[in-house]
Specification:
By secondary structure, the chain is of the alpha+beta class. The chain contains 24 helices and 20 strands.
């Protein structure tokens, strides 16, 4: 989302905010009698002042104009009812849920889990396992039986029986019959947390004690461990293939032939970076000799490319040509890097932890704190009545709610000012039948469900009231809410309008044609080789108006690529304009640049002229959008009544300048 582009400096930061909440706030201005206060203005200004590059926006009066314009747009969005849009509501809800994690987590527990996850991610473990199934909520007798069975199998393994044979014979993991329990290599966050912990805490060649997970009991045998392969820096040469493979077979065959020609030149000793600069069709990396930013496994959208890159072992080693979904590549190893540092992976690890079994440790820590924070007083008489209504049919999911729920509608307990009635708990009990709980007798099961229900109600209440407890949280949510509205408003009133208003766009283009000019352009065919004699031969053919394909056919052989060609139209002063190109028809002299010899043929001169609207449509649309936005605030000031309290503003300016 492009919110940071829209807010005119009102950037959003998800960090601890240190604002003076105790300052007395006054009404700074009103829009249609809705007040906006001094504390919000000073807070937003101070938070974003270092991010503002335009010095004029640091001036308080100038910033005030921007701030009023910003609030005018928010009022317009609300007037149009954009705050009722389902997409907006869902996105705001999602953002609040994400931000609330910073306030509903035990930072000490989270930090310890992050450090543990990082340390484990430094290694990859190869392990085998034997699984004895037992339900997570099984009866104690069934749990003990499964545990003892697992212990018996472990004794056999420790006594010398082959672990693989035992896995095939006893493991209740269906895949064990084929893989003999071997799970291959894995790192942190790939297995359920208790299993992962057992794997990382068991020495190579040893077998763990029984490990309980939601699936049952496991025996884990560690076969091997190795270092994580970290990150890699490579350069590459890419020749694009057509996305329409079915209709452009010739184009794709030509791309394959081109990469093979380049590979042949590499084997002949020609420089990788020079070839990448000349022929690679990755326009971002070609000027840098094909150099790409470093990356780790899973960061690229091409598995073939990653495998080729990580498969290289020696610096400056390059791969054979290979195909990805984008085209043909040759990859050269520049450097290998160890796994990222902890501080670089902290956010990524935090997100993984929250989706993992270990998140229960964080949840349990918060629950413990909330149990101390909120004094829960239960109506024991009503609770006893509820327990009496639950029968053993619960275990078979046949238990039904009492016919008259009004008899249970009294207040069961309170979390601060929020009251939870007995009927709500009964409804929760009914849904818990799906969990297949086995706790007996039924009274103990009700107690177990009740405690979880209370814990959940406390957590929900705490989360729902974060804005009251943490002013900084309320501020960030308010800013994000406004940002989403502003984005939707800009899309509706500016961006879409600029794209769809064909008449307005054309009129704007006609009024500003001088902004959209082609410089002089030239059509050039360039032939290059490491051999001067070959380029001299190419020059003779160019003088005879021979095509690029004719030159390559006559000067290259089946086994040796002597010459490469490139034909393009270049604009005067363009960065990629070949050297020695003059804006005059004809063939240049042979010249040398680095390790290569070149010759150019200029076939056409295109004089400077206006770009057509189609040739520069993207830029015209951007400029037209800015034009519309620049005039928009003036129109909003006519639509809404703005009243600035100048006396309060002058007092605020004097205070903020101290």
């Amino acid at each position: 989302m492009k919110i940071n582009k829209l807010i005119l400096g009102f950037a959003y930061a998800i960090s601890s905010l240190a604002f003076a909440q105790s300052e007395k706030k006054e009404v700074l201005f009103t829009i249609d009698d809705k007040p906006y206060y001094t504390d919000e203005f000073s807070r937003v200004y101070n938070k974003n002042i270092d991010l503002v590059k335009d010095e004029s926006q640091k001036d308080l009066s100038q910033y005030m104009d921007l701030f009023v314009g910003y609030k005018l747009k928010i009022n317009k969005a609300n007037k149009l009812g954009l705050q009722n849009n389902t997409k907006y509501i869902n996105e705001l809800k999602s953002y609040r849920a994400q931000l609330s994690k910073n306030y509903t987590s035990d930072t000490k527990v989270t930090k310890a889990l992050i450090e543990e996850g990082y340390n484990r991610s430094l290694k990859e473990i190869r392990a085998s396992h034997i699984l004895i199934l037992v339900d997570e909520n099984a009866m104690p007798g069934d749990t003990l039986k499964a545990y003892n069975q697992t212990i018996d199998i472990r004794k056999k393994a420790v006594a010398g029986e082959n672990f693989e044979d035992l896995a095939v014979k006893f493991s209740q993991d269906p895949s064990s019959k084929e893989n003999k329990g071997d799970l291959g290599y894995f790192s942190a966050f790939r297995m359920v947390y208790p299993f992962e912990s057992a794997a990382y805490k068991t020495n190579k060649g040893e077998i763990s004690m029984p490990v309980r997970t939601k699936f049952g009991y496991h025996l884990v045998k560690v076969i091997d461990s190795r270092d994580n392969r970290g990150e890699v820096t490579v350069s590459h040469i890419m020749i694009l293939k057509s996305p329409k493979t079915e209709t452009d077979i010739t184009v794709n065959e030509k791309a394959k032939a081109t990469i093979q020609d380049i590979y042949t030149k590499l084997k002949q000793g020609e420089n990788f970076e020079s070839l990448a600069n000349q022929f690679s069709e990755d326009k971002n990396s070609a000027p840098k000799g094909g150099l790409l930013p470093r990356f780790a496994s899973g960061q690229l959208s091409s598995e073939e490319f990653e495998n080729a890159a990580f498969g290289l072992t020696k610096t400056n080693e390059y791969s054979e040509p290979f195909e990805s979904q984008f085209g043909w590549h040759i990859v050269k190893l520049v450097d290998k890097h160890p796994i990222k540092k902890l501080d670089e992976m902290e956010r990524e690890l935090d997100e993984k932890i929250r989706k993992d079994d270990r998140s229960r440790l964080i949840t349990n820590s918060l629950t413990s704190k909330l149990q101390k924070k909120y004094a829960i007083v239960r109506d024991d008489k009503l609770y006893t009545q509820i327990k009496a209504s639950v029968t053993d049919k619960f275990y078979t999911s046949e238990w039904k709610l009492p016919t008259n729920l009004k008899d249970y509608s009294g207040n069961l307990f309170k979390v601060e000012e929020k009251t939870i009635n007995g009927a709500e708990f009964l409804s929760n009990l009914e849904t818990q039948q799906k969990a297949n709980l086995k706790i007996k007798p039924i009274g103990k099961l009700v107690d177990y469900v009740y405690q979880n229900f209370v814990d959940a109600q406390m957590t929900n209440y705490y989360n729902d009231n974060l804005e009251k407890e943490f002013p900084d949280f309320a501020n960030v949510i308010e800013e994000y809410r406004d940002g989403l509205l502003l984005f939707d408003l800009m899309e509706k009133e500016i961006w879409d309008k600029a794209k769809q208003d064909t008449t307005g766009l054309k009129n704007y283009y006609n009024d500003n044609k001088l902004k959209y000019q082609w410089k002089n352009r030239v059509e050039v065919l360039v032939a290059s080789s490491t051999r001067e004699d070959i380029v001299k031969e190419a020059k003779k053919l160019l003088k005879k108006d021979q095509t690029a394909d004719f030159i390559k056919t006559n000067l290259n052989t089946k086994d040796v690529v002597n010459v490469m060609t490139k034909q393009e139209t270049y604009e005067e002063s363009a960065e990629n304009l070949p050297k020695k190109v003059v804006f005059k028809k004809g063939v240049s002299e042979v010249y040398k640049d680095g390790e290569f010899y070149f010759v150019n043929r200029v076939s056409k001169i295109i004089p400077a002229t206006n770009k057509t609207l189609d040739e520069t449509r993207g830029r015209v649309i951007n400029d037209y959008q800015q034009y519309l936005e620049d005039n928009w605030v003036s129109d909003l000031k006519k639509e809404f009544k703005v009243n600035v309290n100048q006396e309060v503003f002058e007092k605020l300016k004097a205070s903020m300048k101290k």
